[in-house]
Automatic annotation (TrEMBL), chains A, B:
Entry function: Catalyzes the reversible cyclization of carbamoyl aspartate to dihydroorotate.
Documented EC number(s): 3.5.2.3
Keyword hit for Phosphoprotein: no
Enzyme superclass (EC): hydrolase
Biological processes per GO annotation: 'de novo' pyrimidine nucleobase biosynthetic process; 'de novo' UMP biosynthetic process
Occurrences of domain Amidohydrolase-related (ranges): 106-295
Pathway involvement of the protein, from the record: Pyrimidine metabolism; UMP biosynthesis via de novo pathway; (S)-dihydroorotate from bicarbonate: step 3/3
Known cofactor(s): Zn(2+)
Keywords: Hydrolase, Metal-binding, Pyrimidine biosynthesis, Zinc
Name the UniProt record assigns to this protein: Dihydroorotase
Length: 335, 335
């Protein structure tokens, strides 16, 4: 049987939530990944040293062993230099949300006034703290990411030493930015390597495929695949796995987010195998992230096997992508 | 209190379904409309004289009085001349669905071979039977209607005496067709005068605003409003009200269709009032259709009143648009 081995897989964009949900979903990521960038959009958002350390402790308590590193992030606000210097060793990045743009982002940035942000962003530059950005405007849903490119350009030009990660990119416009500015990087989810808007609303409407940013057009999917499959050195895997309880997905108003944590590595292997690019998966799912972030995850070896895997209907009440369907690869062992 | 009177309102595109659903929804349309074009996409589709007459009888049995005229349609197939001559007095139009494009359309047209369709369409021309068309290709969901324009052009050019109704148009491209071909007409729904894709998936995902064709871009909404509010003489109101049981809307795979029958006239009045175009509503909601189809509905006078109306959470298990929300106009009386 065909197998493929991955070393120290990393999920560079992960929502673990809190409380019972955290306890339910954290072990699923910890099983197959060496570490993950942990998003700070709790209620209230993670924005103090106390909250950050306490959240990290709750995460560590929820994972069954010590082979999983939660790379912690702060919720972006304008922070002063003293605070950033005091917390630099506890965080891996700071995550910026435009206000109200996605789940629990109400306290985000409401205007991109560079001068107001300068102290924070220059301090981050000098301390080597990357800025992760949810790059969407509040415009028409299919245009939001493309419209945000001018803000990425503004940030990239004004803070040339700041590493800026364009999170969960979904458009050819974002892909084109990678080669335009040396300090722009990107994460790509597994679902955005599989879906277009057609899958979400082209047949029946699929709430479990609804996420922000929404999956875009076929030419956007092609652009994402092109850089992911080649493991473009500025591109990393970040699942944006975003669990919601089933009743918040299948209702009058379905929350945005696709839950892929327990199947993302298998799906990535299937995609890269289908395109005969398995040799590039290690870079996409770990090496590029290590280089970009300068992190050294603990050893973990995941062996995947090419055999049908029936995705469970739910994990503790959270419906995953492809629930009840068969995917082409399974995890054989983790060491 | 401000009132507005409408005479013989007509809904030129209506799904009444069958069985218990028919019994539940038909009275709601019959209350406020003088008549409606009844879509034939039952399972199996309405394609024989027997089925048509039996369906008409079931509709008449479901409405509480004789003030409602169901203008019957056949499901488009290639019919021979003798059959069309035999049924012309029983039908108002024939409805063409591309195969598989929407609810219960599996038996529709799978290729637009003009020569194969010629006998049917020329006979319809000579008998004065309009062709109603669900104009979408099987392409990317946001492009399907615009891509279908070339088929409308093919039909309009080859059958210049055939009245072709572009049903439930949603794009500026379809609006532009109205002035390009004398034999192209259109219906517009009330929800497509209110929604863009932003309302469907821009915030939370809204299954009760999910329909086919999907609501498009802001510039498309503007184009639709421009011809509706002016009551362009080739444009008619057709609700495309499409009831589904609640569990088929709020689930893993939500069926397409928005249920507006009981509130469409109120919403139209609110829209035309907001744009200060109430004087044009009579033409949009009745007179244009009478002229285009050459029909003479029985007298009905509906008086609407400008006061808040709380839309019920559901009508016999069918969730309407704006369920539980207040709209700005209510029906005061029907005579």
């Amino acid at each position: 049987m065909k197998t493929h081995t991955l070393l120290m897989p990393l999920d560079m964009h992960l929502h673990l939530r809190d409380g019972v949900m955290l306890e339910n979903v954290a072990p699923l990521s910890a099983y197959s990944y060496s570490g993950a960038i942990i998003m700070p959009n709790l209620v209230p958002p993670v924005a103090t040293r106390e909250d950050l350390l306490a959240y990290r402790e709750r995460i560590m308590a929820a994972v069954p062993n010590d082979y999983f590193e939660p790379y912690m992030t702060l919720f972006y606000k304008n922070y002063d230099k003293a605070f950033l210097e005091s917390i630099v060793d506890e965080i891996t990045a700071i995550k910026l949300y435009p206000a109200g743009i996605t789940t629990n982002s109400e306290g985000g940035v409401s205007s991109f006034d560079i001068e107001e942000m300068r102290t924070t962003l220059e301090t981050m530059s000098s301390l080597g703290i990357p800025l992760c950005v949810h790059g969407e405007t509040d415009g028409f849903v299919m245009d939001r990411e493309a419209e945000f490119m001018s803000i990425y350009e503004l940030l990239a030009q004004n803070f040339p030493d700041l590493k800026i990660i364009m999170e969960h990119i979904t458009t050819k416009e974002a892909v084109a930015m990678l080669d335009k500015y040396p300090n722009l990087y990107a994460t790509i989810t597994v679902h955005h390597l599989l879906l277009t808007l057609d899958d979400v609303i082209g047949g029946l409407m699929r709430p479990h495929l609804f996420c922000k940013p929404i999956a875009k057009r076929p030419e956007d999917l092609d652009a994402l695949l092109s850089v992911a499959l080649e493991a473009h050195p500025k591109v990393m895997f970040g699942s944006d796995s975003a669990p919601h309880p089933q009743h918040k997905k299948e209702s009058c108003g379905c929350a945005a987010g696709i839950f892929t944590a327990p199947i993302s590595l298998q799906l990535l292997t299937e995609i890269f195998d289908q395109f005969d690019k398995l040799d590039n998966l290690q870079a996409f799912v770990s090496d590029n992230a290590q280089n970009i972030y300068g992190i050294c995850p603990e050893f973990k070896e995941v062996i995947l096997e090419k055999r049908p895997f029936l995705v469970p209907e739910n994990y503790s009440g959270v419906v995953p992508m492809f629930a009840g369907e068969k995917i082409g690869w399974a995890i054989e062992s983790v060491d």
